[in-house]
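Sequence in, structure out. Go.
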Amino acid sequence: MQITLLVIHSIICMFLVVLVLLQQGKGADAGIVFGSGNASSVFGASGSTAFLVRLTTICAVLFFASTLFLGMRENKVSHQLFEVVEAEVVE
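Output:
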């Protein structure tokens, strides 16, 4: 289960990095190279900017949620391990 969660977390992380790199910065025309110049016909009147921002937001929320879940899970595992070690020391 832990490995599956880590793989999903890594995929979300890589996807988030790609989304951030694809977005056009303020005053930069580098986004035209990736097709945002002609994307207004595909993504509607606002172009791909609103679509990429929305997708990045969703991906960021998933990234934070998976990070929080993995941290809570690891904390639970470490507490269980500590209790086992503490019980062995007492005996």
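Check: The helical segments are 2-22, 40-43, 48-90. The mean pLDDT is 78.
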